[in-house]
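User: Predict structure, ligand adenosine-5'-triphosphate.
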Amino acid sequence: MDGVGTPGSQNSWAVELRSVSRTYGRGAGEVAALRDLSLTFGRGSFTAVMGPSGAGKSTLLHCAAGLDRPDGGSVQLAGTDLTTLDEAQLTMLRRERIGFVFQAYNLLGSLTVEENIKLPLLLAEQVVETAWLEHVARRVGLADRMGHRPAQLSGGQQQRVAIARALVTRPEVIFADEPTGALDSRTGRGVLALLREVVDHDGNTVIMVTHDPIAASYAQRVVFLVDGAFAEVMESPTAERVAARMTRLEGL
Ligand SMILES: Nc1ncnc2c1ncn2[C@@H]1O[C@H](COP(=O)(O)OP(=O)(O)OP(=O)(O)O)[C@@H](O)[C@H]1O
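Assistant: Predicted complex:
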């Protein structure tokens, strides 16, 4: 398997989870959100993560992105073991090496498009290269909107700003959590096509959590979780096949 498989010994993966467990609560209220989960995500791959409600998708994303700590196992980001880092190191790693795209855009309304895109570089105290910034703005189709504020943009354009902001630090991986959840289907398809392009043309790595079979069909493969564990992987997904698989998994 070229993007998803069992852990190997090399640092060739963008993200590698080894025997990751995450349990919430204690005693009778204990919930095992992830159970001994091992998964790898290849560099330059686009993976959708799907599964029934409560399967552990968000927990996987949070643990893989250093937003939450597993109780057991390890998470490697391009060879760095996140479980060995303290909070300050994790914050720095998230800023410099990970891009995030959320359903709710999370742009700062008082800043211009350009300032929003540059923000991760400023927070990481990195030099802002004008040519790179222009390249990223062109990449997402917003070069002529750099002076606008988020409120002056459509939902799809705001999500493109969020994607530019995620790209600007040249991250090891971009995590997208329901990136089209707030968009109408046509605008959503444009955003998904852009995510696929930044993988296919620019070699980025994208891991996207979604409930939507159409969104998942833009990925190169879909990883299905059930009950905190890996269930199966589908290569070259189509919306129809993903929907059929979800119906079966939800019935388990
Ligand atoms: N902070 C928390 N405290 C207690 N239980 C939690 C917490 N976060 C998640 N869980 C539980 O862990 C399990 C996995 O949750 P998670 O949000 O990862 O699933 P999901 O697949 O993303 O679900 P959905 O599709 O509904 O968003 C669920 O049973 C959930 O109730």
